[in-house]
Amino acid sequence: MSTAPTWERRFWRFLDVQLSPFPGRGNALLRNVLACALVIILSMSLEVPLLALSLIIVFFVSQSNLMLTRMVGILFMVSATIAVGIAILLLKFTYGYPLLRILCASVVFLISMFAMRATRLGPLFFVVAIVTIYVQSLVDLNTQPELLLRACLWVWMAVVYPILVTLLVNTLLLPKEPQRQLRETMRRQLAQVEIRLAALGEGHPDTTRIGAVEVQQGLLSLHKLLKYASMRGSVKGSREIDQLALITCVSRLYAAAAALVSKGNDTEALAALRQDCAALAAAIDNDTLLQPRVLHSGALQRLLVPPALEEMRDALRALAVTDHATPSSAPTTKEPLLVRDAFSNPNYLLFAFKTWLATLICYVFYTGVDWPGIHTVMLTCVIVALPSLGASTQKGLLRIGGCLVGSALTLLCIVFVVPHIETLVGLLAMSLPVIALGAWVAAGSERISYAGLQIMFCFALALLEQFGPSIDLTEIRDRLVGILLGVLVSTLVHGVLWPESEGDGLRRRLAEVLHGIAALLRSPALEPGETSDRLHGQSLRSWSQLAECEAMLARVALEPGWHQGEHEELTLFTQTLLAKSREILLLTGQLQRNRIALDAQLRAPTQRWLDERQQQMGDWLERYAVHLQTRGTELEVLPALGIMMTGGDANAEALAHDLRTLHHLLDLLPEWQHVEQGALPEPSP
Questions:
Q1: pLDDT tens digits, residue range 606-657?
Q2: What's the domain range around 562?
Q3: Which of 54, 130, 490, 595 is deepest in the core (most CB within 10 A)?
Q4: Which residues of 24-60 are buried (b: 16+ CB within 10 A; e: fewer)?
Q5: Count of beta carbons in the 10 Å neighbourhood of residue 171
Q6: Is 4 part of any domain?
Q7: 194 and 46 share a domain?
């Protein structure tokens, strides 16, 4: 009997994860609703057309912090200006020649879609492609050249002025600086560490455990926010070095707290470390770093047991003695504009061709049947076009789901609310709750955020495009038909012609994660005077690769016919492997940190035994990664760990316990043959 979860369990598990509260979700909702309210008032009062486009720009530009909002806003303004300029230039020379107009627009579209994949400025070329296609639909709706030119200029206005409104709202009313977010995230993690230490010190039940997922997300979020703060200019030079040392310390404390067990803890050390964490939190609140001084935990002139406590004390000591005045002299390397395989990878050009073909088929269809109301079918082909089948399917499903919800809400409003509306206040009272629903969904997980944008967009297209009450139900029908047809055509074209799957790429990424963990496990002990930055960097890269694998799995799970009917088993295999890899990475980092803290107190035979066993397990993990990547049928059995003679040394016993636990986790890694047998266990949470 297969242990794969049923579709009902997967559905409710998905909702439980995706609709859970996110930090800053309420703030993002307020910013979006306020900016949209201002845009509605301005557009209706000044009769600026294309209100639905303006509202969707608000959602695109409004990001999690002020730095990203300004970056995206500037990028959209530049992109819209270039795109409208190119569109007007094409119309000037090809307006009276339909075939030449379509050919020139196709060339611009193909170049834009290729550059979206092959350059670092993908969003800019995406906007150019969208505007190029949208202008072709305007040509069919406007028979006079002057009206067409005015429509193109109104497109530019409908894009640019909402960006300015959004930037104003984010800057003046609800600012969210990356540096402030970084401090809040560090304080939140330190608060969890303090709660964990307090619960262990008071002997409470173990209800404050920090899982491997939380460690991964916490580590990556701190480094991402530091990058944003550096781009914003709030941390530069020596201050950036200070902040890097600070987040490294917080990450080490957080990971060490996750490794603490309920029994065998030093009560005095727990209390001292809790005071140190409180002092560090206060320093973060005051935006100051700890000065070189003797910490409370420094009064404990002895080794702490378990080693996780020693790791926490070492992290605080390393921060306290850090030289905060020496800026980094390493030159910063800028990423090239083109990706490395821009002209050698045929997938980029094939992707552009497939997207163009799907768009052209839809254009010929709606022009041939003379149904201009479904012109959004072309935009849908561009929007859902993503590098892999899984990603395209995921976005297509979100677009359909959001459209269905938005259309249903629009129908209810037209039938029951619109007949009673006479003023702009009534229009806002009807529209803002739907916009708030879309903003709430859009501010959640990236896996469902696009559905929130689509809810708002479908509602606005049907109800807010006219400067008066709208009672035309055909608008709802046309938008829904256009989106459904666009998703269908795009999926068929991308699935039949040179399908680009991420299944094999996911296996390679998983193998890279395991190679990184093996390298971390076999890393030699630190040389005298060497810091733990190297090990921390290796661990950070592995956590980042693991996060990329998890995002890729969410897309691969939606790919149709992945490996000919083995979809469910392979998905479960990958989920199991990811869960085990997360636990192995967390324990490997803990073991290496404990080795750093305790190695000097170990006897030479014990050190050699640990080095040999870590090398042995690292080599086996390397072979497992190769076995996974090549789908081999034979894999050596993990060698037995053997017995270490500790001689009653508590430190050696603690390290041996970590090593035995790690050996057990490696032994539980699933084998490829189990995919065909359907004997995989449920992945651990």
A1: 778 888 888 888 888 888 888 777 765 567 777 777 766 666 566 677 777 7
A2: 503-677
A3: 490
A4: ebeebbbbbbbbbbbbbebbbeeebbbbbbbbbbbbb
A5: 12
A6: no
A7: no
